[in-house]
Amino acid sequence: MRLIRQFTALIYPDRCPFCEELIEPCEIACPVCLEELSRKHIPIRNGALGYRSVASFVYDGKVRRMLLRIKYYQRIQFIEQINAILSRDILDTYEEGFDLITCVPMYKSDQRKRTYNQSKLLAVSLSKMLGVPYLEPLKKIKKTKKQHKLKYADRKTNLNGAFQLIDKEAVKGKRVLIVDDIITSGNTLGNCCRVLNRGKPALICCAAVASAQHKYPEETVI
Ligand SMILES: [Zn+2]
Predict the structure, then answer these.
(1) What gap in Å lies between CA 12 and CA 145, rounded to an integer?
(2) Which of 5-14, 96-105, 109-118, 148-157 is the least confident region?
(3) DSSP 8-state assignment for residue 60
(4) What separation in Å is there between the alpha carbon of 18 and the centre of ligand 1?
(5) pLDDT of amino acid 126
(6) CA-to-CA distance for 207 and 127, rounded, in angstroms?
């Protein structure tokens, strides 16, 4: 087993998700980034339209570049490394535990174009780490504009009717954790929470790798 791992490491060496330097297998990041991020790793406990949320980092600098690598450059191998940090923040923040994990869904033509939904990959990996089942009770039924490119008033209406609860029974009475890569204004996760709430779950909480809510102070709801 160890030999196979060493052989695989020769072909696909582990890299730091923040700067892409080579790292030892099983390390989360290189020592330089770990040192820098240990100072920046202040879990942000905030809101998504009234629902509790936690994010591991502020969305800027190396964290922003790392999330762009995952989202647009297929560096999906970084997800497990990042989730090693996010999963700890989830456990520290939400003592009540969860019955299911889900993600913010993508519209089908967007997913076809991108080939994968990074939020789903994050959620599936977290589900394995936390030992909580992954399910998809939500569907995105409307193509929407990118939230961060819109003005305040348009951000509020852009997502109206965008998500649908397609499996009410899956969430009824359950403690649900919904995952996204970034919390921007909190509108996307908040809208998903509202739609999930129609299925009468016991609890809904949110988690993301990074938060950009400092850019949207007027919209942040605690
Ligand atoms: Zn690094």
Answers:
(1) 36
(2) 5-14
(3) S
(4) 5
(5) 97
(6) 12
Q: Which two tokens stand for residue 201?
A: 């779950």
Give residue 8's pLDDT: 52
Residues 46, 186 contacting (CB under 8 angstroms): yes
Cα 181 to averaged position of ligand 1 atoms, centre (Å) = 20
The CA 164 to ligand 1 mean position distance, Å, reads 39
Expressed in angstroms and rounded, the spacing between residue 41 Cα and the centre of ligand 1 is 14
* pTM score, whole prediction: 0.89
Instruction: Report CA(17)–ligand 1 centroid distance (Å).
Output: 7
| Spacing, Cα 24 to ligand 1 middle (Å) | 12
Residue-range domains of the chain with CATH: 41-215 (3.40.50.2020)
pLDDT of residue 26: 80
> What DSSP assignment string belongs to 200-214?
--SEEEEEEEEE-GG
pLDDT of 150 above 90: no
Distance (angstroms) between ligand 1 centre and the Cα of 102 equals 29
